[in-house]
Structures are given as structure tokens and as C-alpha cells.
Write a structure and sequence with these properties.
single chain; 96 residues; mainly beta; Jelly Rolls; four-stranded antiparallel β-sheet; 8 strands
Length: 96
């Protein structure tokens, strides 16, 4: 019987200081991050995010997906940051 994936949808608030947007999860099978703000964001996996470094998410819809199919699945924490501002929305979907 095929395995079932449960999805969790969360909304993170990102500012100009690094913040965890997805916790470590050894059961993670999939994760997607969607920038729902007017500002470029940066992600880092397993360490503090730094502006202008790491995985860049363009403003208004930039996205990043982690999955076995993409060969980039990590179960470590994911942090995010913006260069300036606060209260910027990052949508996070995690499959376990």
C-alpha cells in the first residue's frame, strides 16, 4: 500500500534578523517555501540565514521546493531573512 503524506501549512513572519521558519523534522518528505511579500528573501538550511546569501526567493511568488525527486530534501531546520523590513510573509508547506 502506498504511503500517505500529511501536509502542514504555516505562515512565517520574516524580518531583517534570521528566524526559523521550519523546524528540524526527521519525518519530512517534502517542503515548499513561497514568498508572499514584496521583498526578496533568503533561506539557509541548518544554519542562520544571511541577507544576500543562500537560497534566494524573489518577491511576490518566488518559491523553493525540497523533495527526494529534486535531490535536495533536508530534514534540518530552515531559517529565513530579508535585507530590510519586517513582517514579510513566507508560506511554508511541509509533507510528513
Amino acid at each position: 500500500m502506498p504511503s500517505t503524506i500529511s501536509y502542514t501549512f504555516t505562515e512565517g513572519s520574516v524580518s531583517n534578523s534570521t528566524s526559523e521558519v521550519l523546524a528540524d523534522n526527521s519525518n519530512r518528505k517534502f517542503a515548499k517555501f513561497i514568498n508572499d511579500s514584496d521583498t526578496v528573501m533568503y533561506l539557509r538550511i541548518g544554519e542562520n540565514a544571511v541577507a544576500n546569501e543562500g537560497i534566494r526567493l524573489s518577491a511576490t511568488g518566488g518559491e523553493y521546493t525540497m523533495s527526494p525527486q529534486h535531490g535536495n530534501l533536508s530534514t534540518r531546520e530552515v531559517d529565513a531573512i530579508v535585507g530590510s523590513g519586517s513582517g514579510k510573509v513566507l508560506l511554508v508547506i511541509e509533507g510528513t
